[in-house]
Amino acid sequence: MLKIGITGQPGFVGTHLFNTLGLYSDRFTRIPFEDAFFKEEKLLNNFVSQCDVIVHLAAMNRHNDPEVLYNTNIGLVKQVISACESTDSAPHIIFSSSTQEERDNLYGKSKKDGRKLFELWANKNNARFTGLIIPNVYGPFGNPYYNSVVATFCHQLTHNEQPKIEIDGDLKLIYVAELVQHIIEIIEKPDNEDRKNAVINQIHLQHTSEVRVSQILQLLEKFKSNYFEKGEIPNLDDPFERNLFNTFICYIDHLNFFPFKLVKNTDNRGSFIEIIKLNSGGQVSFSTTVPGITRGNHFHTRKAERFAVIKGKARIDIRRIGTGKVFSFELDGNAPSFVDMPIWYTHNITNTGEEELVTLFWINEKFDASDPDTWFEKV
Fold first, then answer.
1. How many C-alpha atoms does 31 have within 13 Å on its Cβ side?
2. What confidence tens digit (pLDDT) does each residue in 332-375 have?
3. Cβ atoms 154, 118 nearer than 8 A
4. Within 10 Å of residue 158's Cβ, how many Cβ atoms?
5. Which domains, ranges and CATH numbers included, belong to the chain?
6. Residue 209: φ, ψ to 5°
7. β-bridge partners, 327
8. At 83, which helix (H) or strand (E)?
């Protein structure tokens, strides 16, 4: 069992890494970190002394004064080093640097100089250090106007704001789940315990998509027009477009958007309702649920999923992993509607009526028992 600590745990990448490590409790023990540890030497020392591996993500990405940004980031590195030396600890430190190292700005310089400080510490203490040069990261739960232009565009479009392109350049991107997988592979790479010298690695992670800013905005605008007005799912066969759509969905104001009402066409023969318009594959199924019973209590990390109630009454509850706030939606088959499940939200559905509940489900992947991407946790 490797004991893993993440500075910057509450941040964008830190949250994804912490939650993903939590899926594998048989392999990792997560040592909780709080930003307040940097303000209290004893707390930081205690944190460092417990860790086999420290992933140092804590950093300031933006500030009006570049000098403040540089000094803050270097100061955080020095604090981690000081804590290691004070406690005679030599964990494997994984440091998130950036392709900004190559540019003439103080943020890039703070990353490059921070990496060099960790290398000096590793050499001095015969420790293991890995410096990661990371391209632009995008994905769900990034902070708009801070983490990425993707987060900013998603927030603006889902909140009826008009995005503006400042510079229409090419972006080299990596999805946050892809980055997390790289970090986990580095964490688990065996180390020679009998070594006499430091082990220092510098790894340039390759981007997985390259796209112009204007192309990203066009895709997101298409998602909005088709999804908001028609509930239409785009083609999710391309990994980048699937990841971008899953990111977009997470920025919706769920409480005000769902349940999405479907059009019920009725005549003397009965009724006809369009449940979903797909430009993608996947699997469609339905279930019946007796009164008072709850189904679900699980979440997905990559799958897009829709619950549509077509008969009976139901309550759908969802909660983002790592948080305590539950969103609840009431659905009634007399006025058919659906709720889409964002990734990393555990969800369930309860029959709240007195008759049998009939629910139609769509998910964008066929079920694979060897890789189900279904993780159980009560809402």
1. 22
2. 999 999 999 999 999 999 999 999 999 999 999 998 999 999 99
3. no
4. 20
5. 2-213 (3.40.50.720), 254-376 (2.60.120.10)
6. -145, 145
7. 318
8. helix 66-86
